[in-house]
Prior knowledge:
Number of helices: 18
Number of domains: 1
Largest sheet: none
Shape: globular
Amino acid sequence: MKKNFRDQWTGLSEKVTKAPVEFWLILGLFVSFVIFYFVPTFFRSADSMAQGFDYITPRDGMIGGDHYEIVNSMSRSFLFDVPRFVLKGPYPPFTILFHMPFLLVDTKTSYILISLLSLASLIFQTLVLPARLVKTKGYYPFLTALFITGIFSYGFQFEVERGQYNLIALCLTLTSIWIFHRWPGMRWLAYLLFTSAVQLKVYPAIFIINLVDNWRDWKGIVQRFMGLGLLNFAMLFLFGSENFFRFFGGISKMATSDVSITVNHSIGSFVALVVGKLPALTDYSTYFVLAIVMLVFLCLALICYQTFINKFNGVNPFFILACVVIAQLIPRISFDYTLSIMPAAMAFFFVGIHENIKQSVVTSLSLFVICAAYGSTLFASPYKFAAKEMFPILTPFSNNFSALVIILIVVTIVSLYIRPNQSPQYLKD
């Protein structure tokens, strides 16, 4: 009897470990749906369905407020008073220039246009770019599923509500990486797009690590990084040295600001929230921040090491997902609208490993954890607060920091299971 049970268990475990990537994506999303939406909505109250959450997408003044602030407050001021223009806030000069064309239309139309640009960016970087990275066809149903999770996600709704442009910046970044690896003769265009992305949001600078075609050509890597660094630094002086120092002051102020709220999933915010609940840890908050930052960059270093020893050349799906996560953790202010860039990163990651990952219990469990953690980011804070009330163990997930760190750590573990002869074969014409 024991033998039969052991045989059945062995057969079941083999089937589980050989399950396709799509299975783990669907299972992870399903578990997150049940925990963070279905249960809090239908079972929080014994008498009736939970209704009337105060808000789903955070609201701060009029819809599209961030977009209007740049267009009306800064782009308009620059256009009509160039000599006396004063840069306000942590906005690079190029951001002001990028928003100037919106002055050609009325306020409502400009908001509609920036929203459509964000939607187009989401479509291109989730459905088009990932599908062009591998020779194997048939990924569109899989990518469509990820796109649907993105378009209905809380992060995308928050992005559009604020009139933000994170999706546009990421689209420029991913397109630059794709051009860099696929068309070496057009790398000037890749550098132009990459610089534009950095000048829009600053954090795309972390993606420079993806602009490497030979990890043993250290001289070429240093020259490329230094050249792009000097170009981006020079771009900050577009409005003169005084406005450069104003921009630097805005960045410094943001880096030291205390915006410790649930919808801010940065490392600094998370530590401040924890210390707020455990005042005895106040004296150690700086050490906690440094420890987490070291952990984050250790993960990136391990992926770099694997890439180096495996001689992996091309678009690296582990780098894409890791950089997207790190870009959301490091800035002191990283509101939940930046979660809108996660679907594209997940698409790149799963397409890249789809047929090349070594199936085992570890990798299967890792894929499930990544998908479940990603699924938890799709739901707004009110649902998570409700879930936390029912299951206190879910308290860390009321802030999306926990899910992002889990994704980064597990992606690093999965990267250890890619062998040199298993590296994805990217399209190269």
